[in-house]
Design goal:
The chain is of the alpha/beta class. Helices cover 44% and strands 12% of the residues. Strand 4, helix 5 (120-137) and strand 5 (140-142) form a beta-alpha-beta unit.
């Protein structure tokens, strides 16, 4: 049996936007795997600014190239920041999940929440979308990637000046949010 290959398909939150290389949660994941003595290769295919449609268009080639055993999908935040229709985001997440499953990978959806710029209804529906897709496709989900980062008493202190991208200090918490679900899939 070959060792697991974890493909992370994400946006700037996974691509170390504004951070020193090696300080983002994906790099911390590689260190965690070593600490836990879990042999696995991590492929970070994250691109800053990526939307679910961008991820969807790139996924087939990534699956063919890397043949991952696990796919972590951390996309959707940029869809919401652009106010894209929720049904498009949901459809893209569903298609990506199904494609990864068809390729034999276990999938972890990493959910996001957005400020109520487009209204509370949009924000609530967006936040629930990840769990909805995960349940429908029977895959693991992290409901809110930035739990403990964006919802703390002083959230701005963990963010870069743009107030969108977490500082390096926030990335251990981001990994802590993903790790329990990913660890279950690796066992």
């Amino acid at each position: 049996m070959r060792q697991p290959v974890i493909l992370v398909l994400g946006d700037s939150l996974s691509a170390e936007y504004g951070l020193a290389r090696g300080t983002g949660w994906v790099a911390l994941l590689e260190k965690r795997l070593t600490q836990e003595k879990l042999a696995a290769t991590v492929v970070n295919a994250s691109v800053s600014g990526e939307t679910t449609s961008g991820g969807r268009s790139r996924l087939a080639a990534l699956l063919a190239q890397h043949k991952p055993s696990h796919v972590v999908i951390e996309l959707g935040g940029n869809d919401a920041l652009r106010g894209l229709p929720l049904k498009n985001t949901e459809e893209n997440l569903t298609v990506m999940t199904q494609a990864a499953q068809k390729a034999g990978a276990k999938v972890l959806l990493v959910g996001m929440q957005v400020p109520p710029n487009y209204g509370t209804d949009y924000a609530n529906k967006f936040a629930g979308l990840f769990t909805t897709v995960a349940k429908a496709q029977k895959v693991a989900v992290v409901p809110f990637f930035l739990k403990g980062v964006a919802d703390g008493p002083d959230p701005t202190r963990l963010f870069q000046p743009d107030r969108i991208h977490p500082r390096a200090e926030a990335h251990p918490q981001m990994l802590a949010n993903v790790w329990p679900e990913l660890k279950k899939l690796l066992r």
